[in-house]
């Protein structure tokens, strides 16, 4: 027995019969060698550009540092980016937080002290603040003042609807549709 993938010498070779004579490929245009050579050349050119630009930047930086003139009013320090703790208070507000967890505690303590103590808001007009617990108890006992200060009580929507219904009943049961020519039959009247 022969293996199925192995050509049998007794079998005729039909490979030449399966190829289309009108279809083919041009082998003279591109070779693998030319593609690889182009890619290697492109990589070498990229490395050349990288090192050239890096060298130019380093040269320009050294030239600038060597020929830099100090401003007459500027403070000279070895590193212009170096900030000392005494310089921090000279920065304008708001400053960046260095440790927000510990910096929030004094703020929260001041708020808690304000919320749980008595104090004046405006002593001339007699306005003061009271502890939050005391304020909640007073609101629960007295309720909130909902009337406007002008002395007029606003008409509630429920009262407006109620008054409209009473006016409709006083008009003799008219719906207002009679004027348009529409006849309306009410239950009990025919």
Number of helices: 6
Largest sheet: 2 strands, antiparallel
The span between the termini is: 109 Å
Helix and strand composition category: mainly alpha
Mean pLDDT: 75
The strand count comes to 2
What is the CA-based Rg, rounded?
Answer: 47 Å
State the share of residues found in helices, binned by percent. Answer: 40-55%
Name the poorly predicted regions. Answer: none
Short description:
With 190 residues, the chain is mainly alpha-helical.
3D structure, described in words:
There is one protein chain. The protein has six helices and two strands, in the order ααααββαα. With 190 residues, the chain is mainly alpha-helical. The chain has a domain at 119-143. It is flat, with a radius of gyration of 47 Å. It starts with 14 loop residues before the first helix and ends in a 20-residue tail after the last helix. The model has no long low-confidence stretch (mean pLDDT 75).
């Amino acid at each position: 027995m022969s293996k199925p993938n192995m050509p049998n010498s007794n079998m005729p070779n039909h490979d030449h019969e399966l190829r289309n004579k009108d279809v083919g490929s041009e082998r003279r245009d591109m070779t693998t060698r030319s593609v690889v050579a182009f890619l290697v050349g492109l990589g070498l050119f990229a490395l050349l550009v990288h090192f050239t630009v890096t060298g130019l930047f380093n040269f320009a930086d050294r030239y600038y540092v060597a020929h830099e003139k100090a401003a007459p009013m500027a403070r000279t320090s070895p590193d212009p980016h170096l900030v000392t703790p005494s310089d921090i208070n000279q920065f304008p507000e708001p400053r960046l937080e260095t440790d927000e967890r510990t910096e929030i505690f004094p703020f929260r303590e001041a708020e808690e002290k304000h919320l749980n103590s008595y104090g004046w808001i405006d002593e001339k007009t007699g306005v003061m603040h009271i502890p939050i617990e005391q304020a909640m108890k007073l609101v629960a006992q007295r309720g909130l003042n909902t009337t406007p200060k002008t002395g007029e009580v606003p008409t509630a929507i429920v009262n407006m609807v109620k008054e409209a219904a009473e006016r409709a009943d006083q008009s003799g049961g008219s719906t207002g549709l009679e004027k348009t020519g529409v006849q309306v039959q009410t239950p009990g009247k025919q």
